[in-house]
Specification:
Strand order of the largest sheet of chain A: 1-2
Largest interface: A-B, 91 and 67 residues
Low-confidence stretches of chain A: 1-33
Distance between the termini of chain A: 35 Å
Number of helices of chain B: 11
Low-confidence stretches of chain B: 1-14
Structural class of chain A: mainly alpha
Radius of gyration of chain B: 27 Å
Strand content of chain A: under 5%
Order of helices and strands of chain A: HHHEEHHHHHHHHHHHH
Number of strands of chain B: 0
Structural class of chain B: mainly alpha
Largest sheet of chain A: 2 strands, antiparallel
Largest sheet of chain B: none
Oligomer: heterodimer
Radius of gyration of chain A: 28 Å
Distance between the termini of chain B: 59 Å
Number of strands of chain A: 2
Shape of chain B: extended
Helix content of chain B: 55-70%
């Protein structure tokens, strides 16, 4: 539609200039005759998506109903893989760990990110420098983050964090080797490396808060506490929603952080859904079982997204 | 006249307290100490660990528990040892994969974005739906079957497992990049494209010589996100 409109415009412009309207008409005819050129432009993207997204997806669905063995050929076994995943204790533990780690890490990162944003809000150049420096963990590769924290968590008494807690008279902890601590140690690293990312989103939201509201609140005698509770947080509600959804969906497929720090150990105490998929699929070659777990993960994340979208829509409508 | 800067500063400090949620103004002397300590703590917690790694690279030290913010034994020995283990070769691989992958990703995003934004064709909604669907499909979910597919590409019957193509091609098309490009190209005035068409430019030439130079800001965004993603 916009095409014809502009052709008319072009014709009008040409008529004014006195040129024959032949040229624009030819242009229109040509663009219509080459309808396939749009598909030519789309072809690379579509081919790559089909080959590396949709065919693997279809293959995954097929393998989830099969007993996959590379040399003997695959045999159809119906829902046996599904039953195995749903009744397997390892997967039950992985679900528990994913929920604990995901919820803890999302809440922690959002809250820490919010506090960081409040603390580092402001136009001064020093604050700009501090904000940039604080953002560093986000851009650091997960493998490097894991390496840094492994040194910080060094289990001996002269490890960095053990020295710090030693100042308060606490006995050294074997952070990544203790089954009751390891999950929380991983959670801390996750919060550390993702909170600055949420900080940036919150900072963008804070910049949009109407300053006259602060002024009005100040005239009404509101203190800093009230200002944050009754002006800043309500104004940031959309940003808080978006960030929470983002964090929750990301938390479902948390993998690299866990993998570089503990590899799912000790004794499976940090085994999450994705590390379980990796172990089953690539280390034990249980491709059917791993495919089932992948599909369940997809269903869970789609459900979570849909629920989140539904809730945000409702909020907006009100 | 000599009073005015002082007065201005005081005024700005009073006004500035309402510029942030915490009420901390730039020139405020009262909260300076608190703010300084707070910034120092945040720097130590968030940037400190990364600084220690950078310092550690220049510090010849065999103690695995040592974390310092200042090199005690500065040397380039670590680099020599790392070079001996072929680190520059690995680094080159990383750069090559990221660079080549980015090039493909941008080309794909530009062409597909152009088709979505500037062309009318049957099935446009379907294509848009396909792109959006891939955004809902996390890489982690297809990881296991993807490894199988890479070992035996359907129809082509070749295996690209173990080659750099197995790393680059699965991330070469990004729905996010395509949608960013499409959103930007939609705002380019139709008259400019029409003018190029009248001048006899081919579709490809319009894209390369007219649209592309006008989409440089979007290209920058796509490049930054793509480089981080790959």
């Amino acid at each position: 539609m916009s095409n014809t409109g502009s052709v008319i415009k072009a014709t009008a412009a040409n008529a004014k200039g006195g040129t024959p309207p032949l040229a624009p008409r030819r242009g229109r005819v040509r663009s219509q005759s080459q309808w396939w050129s749009a598909w030519m432009f789309l072809a690379p993207a579509l081919l790559l998506f089909i080959y590396f997204k949709f065919i693997p997806m279809a293959q995954g669905i097929r393998m989830s109903f099969q007993d996959v063995s590379p040399f003997l050929g695959n045999t159809w076994i119906g829902f046996e893989n599904y039953i195995e995943v749903l009744t397997n204790d390892r997967f039950h533990q992985a679900v528990r760990n994913t929920i604990v780690l995901g919820a803890g890490q999302s809440f922690g990162a959002v809250i820490v990110g919010f506090i960081l944003a409040l603390l580092l809000e402001g136009p001064s150049r020093t604050l700009w420098f501090v904000r940039t420096a604080v953002f560093l963990p986000v851009v650091t590769a997960s493998a490097v983050v894991g390496e840094i924290w492994r040194i910080i968590y060094y289990p001996a008494a002269d490890g960095f964090l053990n020295k710090v807690i030693g100042l308060f008279g606490i006995d050294p902890i074997r952070y990544l080797e203790d089954t009751s601590v390891a999950l929380y140690a991983v959670m801390t690293v996750g919060i550390w490396s993702s909170a600055p990312y949420y900080m940036v989103i919150f900072l963008a939201g804070l910049a949009g808060v109407d300053r006259s509201l602060y002024e009005a609140a100040a005239i009404d005698g509101a203190r800093m506490r009230h200002r944050i509770l009754y002006v800043t947080i309500p104004a940031l509600r959309p940003a808080i929603m978006i960030v929470s959804i983002l964090a929750a969906v990301r938390a479902l497929r948390i993998f690299t952080d866990v993998w570089v720090l503990t590899g799912g150990g000790p004794a499976g105490s940090t085994q999450v859904w994705m590390t379980q998929i990796y172990t089953q699929g690539f280390e034990r070659n249980n491709l059917g079982v791993a495919s089932v777990a992948s599909i369940l993960l997809l269903i869970a994340s789609v459900l979570l997204t849909v629920v989140a979208i539904y809730f945000t829509r409702n909020k907006e409508a009100k | 006249m000599s009073v005015s800067p002082k007065r201005r500063r005081r005024q700005s400090s009073v006004e500035g307290t309402l510029d942030t949620a915490f009420g901390w103004a730039v020139g405020d002397q009262k909260t300076l100490l608190v703010r300084g300590i707070m910034c120092a703590i945040l720097l130590f917690v968030f940037a400190g660990p990364i600084l220690t790694i950078i310092v550690g690279a220049f510090d010849f030290n065999t103690d695995p528990t040592a974390l310092t913010l200042w090199p005690h034994n500065p040397s380039l020995e670590n680099f020599r040892v790392a070079a001996g283990r072929g680190i520059w070769g690995y680094f080159g691989n990383s750069l090559f994969i990221a660079g080549f992958g980015l090039l493909i990703q941008i080309s794909v995003a530009v062409t597909a974005g152009y088709a979505l934004a500037r062309r009318k064709f049957y099935g446009q909604t379907v294509v848009l739906g396909i792109f959006l669907a891939t955004m809902m499909l996390p890489e982690e979910v297809v990881a296991v079957p993807l490894a199988v597919v890479l070992g035996d590409l359907p129809l082509l019957g070749i295996s690209i497992r173990g080659t750099i193509f197995a790393i680059i091609l699965p991330v070469a098309a990004s729905a996010f990049s395509i949608l960013v490009m499409a959103a930007f190209m939609r705002d380019i005035p139709e008259e400019i494209i029409e003018a190029a068409r009248i001048d006899g430019a081919s579709e490809f030439r319009i894209l390369v010589q007219v649209i592309l130079p006008m989409s440089l800001p979007a290209l920058g965004v796509v490049a930054i996100f793509g480089f981080n993603g790959i």
